[in-house]
Amino acid sequence: MHNPSPLIPYPATITKIVDETGDVKTFTVEFDDPEVMERFGNKPGQVAELSVFGEGEATISITSSPTRGKFLEFSVRRVGRLTSVLHQMEVGQKIGVRGPYGNWFPYEMMKGKDLFFIGGGIALAPLRSLIDFVLSEQYRKDYGKVEILYGARSYNDLCFKSDLFERWPKCPNTKVYTTIDRPEEGWTGHVGFVPNYVEEVNPSPENKIAIICGPPIMIKFTLAVMEKLGFSDEQIITTLEMKMKCCIGKCGRCNIGSKFVCVDGPVFSLAQLKQLPPEF
Amino acid sequence: MDARVINKGQLPELLDRLAKDYALFAPVREEETVTLFKKVAGAKEVALDYTNSDVSPKGCLFPQTEKTFSYIYTGDSLQINKNEDVQNTVIFGARPCDVRSILSLDPVFEGKFVDDYYAARRQNTVIIGLSCNKVLSTCFCNAFNSGPCDGTGSDLLLTDLGDKYYVEVNTDKGKSFVEAYGQYFASQGAEQLAKAKEELAKTLEGQFIRQVDLGGVKEVLDENFELPYWDKVFKKCLGCGICTYVCPTCHCFDIFDFTTGDFTGERFRCWDSCMFPDFTLMAGGHNPRPTKKERVRNRFMHKLKYHLDRYNIAGCVGCGRCIAKCPVNIDITAIIKDLKEVGQNA
Amino acid sequence: MMDIAQQLREQAKKLLEEKKVDLVIGFGEGTELARTTPVFVNNPEDVAVLTWNPFCANNLVKYLTDYSHEPGKVAVVVKGCDSRAVNRLIADNQIKKEKVVVIGVTCPGQLDWQKVAAKISPGVRLKEVTDNGDSFTVKTDAGEYKFDKKDYMLRRCLVCENPNPVVADVLLGKEQPVKNYEERFAEVKALEQLSTEEKSAYWDKQFSRCLRCYACRNVCTVCTCRECVFDQMKPMWVSKRNNLSENTAFHLIRAFHVAGRCVDCGECDRICPVDIPLRKLNQKILKDLGDLFDAPTPGSRPDLVSPLGEFTTGDPEEFM
């Protein structure tokens, strides 16, 4: 079934729901028409529009890597009207999905390089699509060492726990660093904020790309650390969040200067970001 | 291209026929003071003695409220029915500035993702432009290499020359239209009227009160995002949506669902305004354009720079509606002038 | 008129120099002949931008709430109609009385700029305006024009209740007589004569062309809610869909929301881009409040409470 209109969602069914944290759930979604998935062709870092019928649409990053199977995963924090309703939905219920939209992580450019992922809170979601992509059997050989540094306020706020503690550490030439903001009973791992932990881990900028995603304040302090460590603006990749509605570059609200985040982003290198007006 | 003549006495008959054959949008006067483009049933409703409509005809192609689809979701099955409501349409009497604005909207709705709602309407619409017979104090279409008798974008351009309309046939679509309604379009006398039109155009061009020079303005905006100037402009803004809703090139919209709580519902898109605080407010509470200052700046940057950067065509056509309608006299031509000065003093 | 402009500048300069206020909000020359624009003066050296003429239609009191949480005092130039809004904002606790210095100017009526612009090229410069009682003489650098008030004034000014400000710390201009005030509900009374179906048809026609630009709300001095019910997303009482039913809901909810507080400045009506006669809605309520509760126009005295905001044993009960 070819969908001629970019504003019409494809019917899809929720096949699995994982409670990540108190207010984050990961929804696994499969298109009702398998052919749609064949043509979907999402690349790591892209976003999609989720329809909750009766509530409208929200732009959510696709957190699953296309290498993992014929489904899409979306990690959604309960913040507004639509996401509250989505959180009440159950396996078997239907939503709408259209996309994929936006640009993607420059995984071609990253080939042959070491990758250092830095994430905070829910913002591990967009990174996860690329992490799983480079760790996939198919592409693992194309990339060097993969390190993932991730933090959240508390143990309960850590998303993707099975990935963090089971799946990813078992992958070859891969290391996962996890931290929580404050000490907690039962937590034996690192305690402290993400930027400080990055400084402690002290990654060398040599042949390395850093991919950073998190709340604005975390990004701000982390960027300062990266600069201190000698990373250039071209070596730092991040994704932006803006209010989006159409996601196809027409409705006009996600512009930063002349760029629309929905079609020209959400992935930008720090060098590109510095060319944009500071309005995000 | 070809030129023809319509005798004014025959126009009502032509309009009546068009109203039967097409969805005919034309200027309509309400309460003696307001002119709007509306779908009409015949010539009687059409107001031809208007200067420029209060609201532009952009809504004929991009309605203020438009259903994109309806759905039936019973819990087990989900059915989505796209709204395919596209009629063969004639827009009659659009002024040259408003026709130019459609050329400015086209690239927005085209591109990698073609907005098929707009595209279908656009494709099925014949645009009959109407030259101006008067230049208003707020008009400045001449700043955009246009003018009161400019036919760019019109399939046909009519010029009122007393008891006749001079008709320029500008496109193939216009040509087929004239052929289909041949009895109303005489060939005889067109040559003499061509001269009269030239003269009218020349006279009108001398009537512009506003002499707006855009030279250097984009360069100032290219170089400067932060300008102390914006601190002066925004304070008086009331944050209403008049400028964006009367603007023929503004195209921002919102999308949302309407349901009465049963299994059915509809999705709509509606004009939205970048002047409203919730336009960029995210669900989590962050707003990248939190105050009137950022919003006012964004609107003018959009008109004078961003649209040009993206589509290589200005996001303003000089129709002057925002000047005439702004309750607090925020005047884009004054802003252009001030920005030029900023550039010269830099 | 030019004298008053000069006095205004002097007063503003004095207030700023003596640090009695940090900001003066007044009228400045607009970009066209018959228009003015709100100006914000912080510096005594900039008072020359202030002006006064019969094109000062805006109600500048609207801007006071922008400064209610900022330090410093604000002076605002008001006409009689606007001054009612000062009383109302203070009564509604939207702004502290001690924060505001009211520069009142008596007002012989405001001209409808569009009507004037249709007569004189708006591209010319205004030199002087003289008030002849029943008319204004407008001198421009392209000549002199005379405008009869009855034909060129804003409708609201023809039946003005308060040509002299009801509150003012500084008062400029000579006292103006109240004229034709008793006729102020003429349009409402005419509407009341219609049958229910006719009234409904009348308003359907008006509301159906509403653009929902919310200018009527945003220009309104008593629309001070931190989050307007029409902006609220959760629940969404009125959606952005533009149709007769939701447009009607918007206007009626708004009219009832400002009932008993609307100071009848008429700005919503004046600035509507599609000329919806909004003042008739507000005036209908105003008239009913007068008939039912003997309520004066909100804001016309500083001590007034909203007739809908208090209960007295004498309240009529027929409608309950």
TrEMBL record, chain A:
InterPro entries: Cbr1-like_FAD-bd_dom, Cyt_c3_hydrogenase_gsu, Dihydroorotate_DH_Fe-S-bd, FAD-bd_FR_type, FNR_nucleotide-bd, OxRdtase_FAD/NAD-bd, PyrK_electron_transfer, Riboflavin_synthase-like_b-brl. One of its GO terms (molecular function) is oxidoreductase activity. Signal peptide: none annotated. [2Fe-2S] cluster binds at residues 246, 251, 254, 262. It comes from the Bacteria. Its cofactor is [2Fe-2S] cluster. The keyword DNA damage does not apply. Keywords: 2Fe-2S, Iron, Iron-sulfur, Metal-binding. GO terms for biological process: pyrimidine nucleotide biosynthetic process. This is 2-polyprenylphenol hydroxylase and related flavodoxin oxidoreductases. The lineage of its organism: Bacteria, Bacillati, Bacillota, Clostridia, Eubacteriales. The gene is UbiB.
TrEMBL record, chain B:
Residues 226-258, 304-338 form the 4Fe-4S ferredoxin-type domain. Keywords: Iron, Iron-sulfur, Metal-binding. Transmembrane segments: none annotated. One of its GO terms (molecular function) is iron-sulfur cluster binding. This is 4Fe-4S ferredoxin-type domain-containing protein. It comes from Pelotomaculum thermopropionicum (strain DSM 13744 / JCM 10971 / SI). The lineage of its organism: Bacteria, Bacillati, Bacillota, Clostridia, Eubacteriales.
From TrEMBL, chain C:
GO terms for molecular function: iron-sulfur cluster binding; metal ion binding. Keywords: Iron, Iron-sulfur, Metal-binding, Ubiquinone. PROSITE patterns: 4FE4S_FER_1, 4FE4S_FER_2. Residues 297-320 are annotated as: Disordered. InterPro entries: 4Fe4S_Fe-S-bd (IPR017896), 4Fe4S_Fe_S_CS (IPR017900), FrhB_FdhB_C (IPR007525), Helical_ferredxn (IPR009051). SUPFAM superfamilies: 4Fe-4S ferredoxins. Pfam families: FrhB_FdhB_C (PF04432). Coiled coil: none annotated. Gene3D superfamilies: Alpha-helical ferredoxin (1.10.1060.10). The keyword Iron-sulfur applies. Residues 253-284 form the 4Fe-4S ferredoxin-type domain. This is Predicted NADH:ubiquinone oxidoreductase, subunit RnfC. The gene is RnfC.
